[in-house]
Structure formats: structure tokens, C-alpha cells
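Quick review question:
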């Protein structure tokens, strides 16, 4: 009786056969078993889309499929299929070392059984088991390693589920499931401050904290003209603020005071409550503000709003000076240096004119939180040429905050 062969090429010698050569054949069989147990082969599958059959070599160590580890190599320019015969039962370490963004599928030569496929971007490793569990449609099963079932490889693309990462070092970005940028990361070599995230139990909100040094800001910077929002509403942040101070909140000074006036234009339409500043001499008015605690106690600026009952197109110039008074301090104090802005009139009676923002006004008295600031406003007729009373309707006063609230 002649010898027969296993699907992996091991020779099964018949009783009494191969006299004188039995030892050689046995040694060959042992070599085949050794390469099945731990042998390695690099198999080039270079080229366009194609099917490559791994060869079997009966009674010889040359069988490609009779190796434990098979590394696929070569530059591929199309999707690849690698097959083994229907009766092969073995497990393999597969490595995809090809270059080219195409899939590599490992399967039985025919049938509709399960297969394993390296994705176009997966240049990793996988353990598979060729089951030979059906004579027509055998399955290729994947084992828990590499891209097939979830273990991480250096170059593969995997999905991690229920994995604990302790102090992972992330490069430049975190992407979403579509590969689009979700969070970009910029590393600072000498960093000592960072964000700390904490979740929360029922009824409490999660916390995003700045940690590191004793006092650490959190900077949230919209891009360009973007706005920092919570939901659809803009978040109020420290910075430049404004207060509207109408003329009715001001009072003429005892000496050279402007005239408080009320003017009806057309019945049932807006009336003017104004302080009228004379065209021939400097006249004055005052007002006072207790600024919010969030004020940075720095300089302020203002914009005057005025009108005139004239067709003259000259300009009116208003100036403002201030002094801060502390608790238990003397109110009888000198104002600081006045700053102002000139506004040309339109030439149409009772038009509203809004002046440009003034230069920075330094408030006298070394202002501090909780103090009252007195302001002096006047028309400098030596620096303007409007030939009519300038009817001041109010000013918009600008100041800067450096705290989120007044707590």
C-alpha cells in the first residue's frame, strides 16, 4: 500500500513500506511538524487585485501553509485574497506587512464559511484558526488578538471597549469615529497646570477644574469673532463694560452750571431731558457712581450723546474728569485730568449726535474697590465752534472688569 498525506503534507507511511528510506522520511515528517509548530515564512502577495493559494507540498518541508507564522509582504495595488485548501485544520499567526491601502483577506479556497480580513489601514497581526469544520463551507475563526477581536497593535486601527488606560500619553489630537478632529492637543514642555475632570452623582454637575499651582486661571478663547456661549446664550466674561448715564442723573454745578431743560418736539413723541451747555462760556455738571466690585479700578472713557436746536454744523467738545473717594475720606477733593472728544453737528435741528470714544481718563484719588467716584463734565467752548447751546442727553461710560462677578 502506498503512503498517504495529511492536509499539511505530513507523509503517513503504510506498514512495511519505504524499506531503507523510512528514517529519511521520518526525519522529513519531523521537520514538517516542527515548522507547523513554530515555523515562519514571508509570503509576497505583491501586485494588483488577485487570489493567492498557499501551496501544500506532500512529504516536503516546502509547504507554505505548513508554517505557524505567515507574514504577507510586498506592495499591493488592489485587494488581496489568500486561500488554503478546504481540509486544512490549523491555527496561524498572520502579519500584514504589505504596503498599499488595500484589504488582505484570508479564507478557504471555496465555500461560504467565515473569513478574516485585514482592513485597508490595518498593518497589524492576528491569530486565526482554520477549523475545517465543514467539508464544503469551513470557517476561519479569529482569536482574541490584534485587529480581529480587539487587542491593540502598534499600527492597527482598533476599537477599545471597557479598557482602562492609566496615564496614556496622547500625541496631537483626539479624533471622532469618522477620523475627524475632535480635540487638538498642544504640549507645553514646562507645564505644571492642567485641567482635572470629575464626574458627579445624581443631582450634581460634573466639574472641570484648573489644577496645579495655588491660583490658576481657565482660559477659554473663541476664534476670530466667535462668542463664548452656554447653550445658545453668550457667557458674560470680564472685560470692557459700559454704563448709560442720562442727563437727568447729572446735576448742574452751583457755579457755572449747565441748565437742566425739558423740550417737547412733537406731542406724543420723544421729549428731550437735557443739560444745555452755553456756547459762550464753559459750563459744568456732575454725577457720581459706585462702580461694581468687579471694576479693575483703572482708567475709563466716555461717549457723549447730544443734540442742538440749530442748523449750524460746528462742533461741540465735552470733557470729563473724575476723583475717587474712600469710606471715611474727604469728598472735598480735586478732580483728575479731564479728557474729551469733539462732535460735529449735522446741521439739522434736534438730530441725535453720538461722539467718538474719548481718550483714557485717569481718576484721581487712587481708586479702590467699594469707593464712590465723582465725575465732572463740561463743555470746552474754547475748543469748539457750535454757535448754539449743546444739549447733552447723556453719556455712555466705559470701564473694565477683571472679575466674573461682584462676590
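Suggested answer, residue by residue:
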Amino acid at each position: 500500500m502506498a503512503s498517504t498525506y495529511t492536509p499539511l503534507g505530513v507523509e503517513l507511511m503504510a506498514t512495511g513500506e519505504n524499506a531503507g528510506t523510512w528514517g529519511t522520511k521520518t526525519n522529513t515528517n519531523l521537520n514538517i511538524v516542527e515548522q507547523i509548530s513554530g515555523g515562519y515564512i514571508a509570503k509576497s502577495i505583491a501586485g494588483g487585485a488577485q487570489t493567492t493559494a498557499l501551496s501544500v507540498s506532500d512529504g516536503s518541508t516546502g509547504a507554505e501553509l505548513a508554517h505557524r507564522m505567515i507574514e504577507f509582504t510586498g506592495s499591493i495595488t488592489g485587494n488581496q485574497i489568500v486561500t488554503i485548501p478546504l481540509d486544512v485544520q490549523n491555527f496561524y499567526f498572520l502579519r500584514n506587512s504589505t504596503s498599499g491601502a488595500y484589504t488582505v483577506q484570508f479564507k478557504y479556497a471555496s465555500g461560504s464559511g467565515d473569513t478574516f480580513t485585514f482592513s485597508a489601514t490595518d498593518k497589524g497581526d492576528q491569530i486565526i484558526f482554520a477549523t475545517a469544520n465543514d467539508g464544503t463551507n469551513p470557517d476561519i475563526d479569529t482569536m482574541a488578538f490584534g485587529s480581529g477581536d480587539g487587542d491593540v497593535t502598534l499600527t492597527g486601527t482598533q476599537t477599545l471597549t471597557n479598557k482602562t488606560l492609566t496615564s496614556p500619553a496622547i500625541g496631537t489630537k483626539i479624533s471622532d469615529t469618522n477620523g475627524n478632529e475632535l480635540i487638538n492637543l498642544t504640549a507645553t514642555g514646562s507645564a505644571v497646570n492642567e485641567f482635572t475632570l470629575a464626574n458627579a452623582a445624581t443631582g450634581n454637575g460634573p466639574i472641570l477644574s484648573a489644577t496645579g499651582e495655588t491660583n490658576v486661571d481657565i482660559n477659554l478663547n473663541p476664534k476670530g469673532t466667535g462668542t463664548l456661549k452656554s447653550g445658545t446664550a453668550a457667557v458674560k466674561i470680564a472685560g470692557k463694560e459700559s454704563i448709560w448715564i442720562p442727563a437727568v442723573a447729572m446735576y448742574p454745578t452751583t457755579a457755572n452750571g449747565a441748565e437742566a431743560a425739558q423740550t417737547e418736539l412733537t406731542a406724543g413723541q420723544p421729549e428731550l431731558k437735557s443739560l444745555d451747555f452755553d456756547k459762550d462760556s464753559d459750563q459744568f455738571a456732575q454725577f457720581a457712581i459706585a462702580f461694581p466690585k468687579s471694576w479693575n479700578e483703572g482708567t475709563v472713557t466716555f461717549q457723549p450723546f447730544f443734540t442742538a436746536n440749530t442748523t449750524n454744523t460746528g462742533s461741540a467738545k465735552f470733557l470729563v474728569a473724575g476723583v475717587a473717594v474712600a469710606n471715611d475720606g474727604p469728598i472735598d477733593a480735586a478732580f483728575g485730568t479731564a479728557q474729551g472728544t469733539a462732535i460735529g453737528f449735522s446741521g439739522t435741528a434736534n438730530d441725535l449726535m453720538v461722539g467718538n470714544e474719548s481718550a483714557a481718563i485717569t481718576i484721581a484719588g487712587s481708586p479702590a474697590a467699594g469707593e464712590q467716584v465723582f465725575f465732572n463734565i463740561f463743555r470746552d467752548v474754547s475748543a469748539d465752534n457750535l454757535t448754539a447751546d449743546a444739549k447733552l442727553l447723556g453719556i455712555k461710560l466705559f470701564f473694565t472688569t477683571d472679575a466674573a462677578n461682584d462676590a
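Why it works: Residues 271 and 346 are 19 Å apart (CA to CA). Residues 4-149 form one domain.
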